[in-house]
Amino acid sequence: MPHRLSLMQVRERLAAGDILPTEAVQACLNRIAETEPQLHACLTVHSEGAMQAAKSLEASGFPQGPDSQKLLPLWGVPIAVKDVFCTKAMPTTCASRLLENFIPPYDAFVVERLQNAGAIIIAKTNLDEFAMGSSTEHSAFVVTANPRDVEKVAGGSSGGSAACVTAMQAYGALGSDTGGSIRQPAALCGCVGLKPTYGRVSRYGMVAYASSFDQAGPMARTVEDCAMLFSVIAGYDERDATSAQLPVPDVMAGLSRKDLSGLTLGLPKEYWDGGLSAEVTAACRNAVRVAEGLGARIIEVSLPHMRYAVATYYILASAEASTNLARFDGVRYGRRSQKEQSLLDVYTNSRSEGFGEEVKRRILLGTYVLSAGYYDSYYKKASQVRRLILQDFEKALTQCDALLAPVAPVTAWKRGAFIDDPLTSYKMDILTISLNLAGLPGLALPVGLGETSRMPVGLQIMGKAFGEAELLSIGNVLEKALPGMERC
Fold first, then answer.
1. Are 136 and 160 in contact (CB under 8 A)?
2. pLDDT per residue over 53-72, tens digit each?
3. Gap between the Cα atoms of 97 and 370, Å rounded
4. Is 82 a known active-site residue?
């Protein structure tokens, strides 16, 4: 069946004419129809638009020439995008009632890049409202289930993208990572997810949660697929003031590495000491042994300020969220309350009716830490600790080429288990948020199933700024040496 092919496999067959774009789109639409009643991975399925785009590609035919696949590397490939990226032809809701009927007048940078590469946007995927959450249970519309056990969460906030890829509804997807929102759902569902260096992928057209943390990135079934998507979306964009004006390396060429000889990989002891379930420890330790068997030198390193990461992250990210979400006021766009007698009523009622509980919680926290009398005690202090965390990573990465650690302390948990316990839910991000505080890249790689839960376990490979090529190269070698993750 075409939907079971990897992105790279379907790409080659489309270019060769063995599969038509309409056939690839129809295969994905059939798979979506088959799995969506249980998964709820998608908020919008772009059936007619995707089929029209496929027919247009077929009519023009695959361009002939030696560089055709370089110019149009995703020609005819159906891709899904998280519903936090603006799409001109489709609603962009951020899984919030406040933007329920909003259709942007423009495309996000990453959507432009995908379409310019020949990709077909087939669906917008579910998420925690405004990307605030770790389980995709905080969507205003539906709860996304884990394709490997629908009684369990898919992770978050990019849970819809992870579930979509894992269930083979699309050949790849885009997510956003503010505190682990690509890597954690990738680990819980059993797919590959890459959080690029902050600034490597433009944030233009991505609805902001926390502007100094947010980063768009790819999610796919294999490291090679992930590398291909990254190569398409990475690059400088003058419309984004934080976009890095640096050349993007040929990450596909770096996948030719056969082993890990000559590399030193560090194990941050703070990630491995306590708090991990036995099955996560076992699967990740096995992956480390495999890396050592492939020629890598393994050493222990320390990130001493990681203990402050959760508090630091939630102070800073919530502060930025309270500022960013102030634009949703019921006046300019989005939901406007009908219960209005004054301008204050418009603001208060529109936001009260439009925002969910988790978003309100973070707005209130952010407003508090930015308020007069508390700014120096909380926000300023957290900003100073953020710098110390970056310095810890920089020091550790002078001793090794990359760091290895689990992505999440446990495998996917039962839906509803922490819905009324936000503090425990926040602690589930403890192994991912440090990298966002530092702005460094990380790759989540499935390394096996838990012995007890039989749910996926993910290992994250973390590296130096703009070192995505190295991480993908290491991940590709490990992926080939580890047991393959069984398809859903």
1. yes
2. 999 999 998 887 777 677 89
3. 26
4. yes
pLDDT at 218 exceeding the cut of 90 = yes
Annotated active-site residue in 96, 139, 176, 181: 181
Question: With pLDDT > 90 as the criterion, what percentage of the chain qualifies?
Answer: 88
| DSSP per-residue string spanning 208-257 | PSSTTT--EEEEESSHHHHHHHHHHH-B--TT-TT----PPP-TTGGGG-
Q: What is the DSSP-derived secondary structure letter of residue 403?
A: E
The rounded percent of the chain whose pLDDT value lies above 70 is 100
Per-residue model confidence as pLDDT tens digits over 253-291: 999 999 999 999 999 999 998 789 999 999 999 999 999
Instruction: Give catalytic status of residue 181 as yes or no.
Output: yes
Q: Which helix (H) or strand (E) holds 149?
A: strand 149-153
- Has 70 been annotated as catalytic? no
SS3 content of the chain, % helix, strand, coil (to 5): 45, 15, 40
pTM: 0.96
272: helix, coil or strand? helix
Average pLDDT over residues 94-105: 96
Predicted pLDDT at 427: 81
**R_g of the chain computed on alpha carbons:** 21
In the numeric block, which tokens belong to residue 112?
């432009």
Q: Is the pLDDT of residue 485 over 80?
A: no
Distance from C-alpha of 10 to C-alpha of 4, rounded to nearest angstrom:
9
Catalytic residue among 82, 124, 152, 464: 82
Q: Nearest 5°: phi and psi at 207? A: -60, 125
Nearest CA among 246, 162, 225, 233 for reference residue 204: 233
CB 144 within 8 A of CB 126: yes
Cα 178 from Cα 186, distance rounded (Å): 14
| Cα 207 to Cα 111: distance, rounded to the nearest angstrom | 13
Predicted pLDDT at 205: 98
Quickly list DSSP for 459-475: EEEE-STT-HHHHHHHH
Is there a contact between 201 and 195 (Cβ–Cβ < 8 Å)?
no
Q: SS3 for 138?
A: coil
Six token digits for residue 359: 């978003």
Instruction: Look up residue 194 and give its two tokens.
Output: 């890459």
Check whether 139 has a pLDDT greater than 90: yes
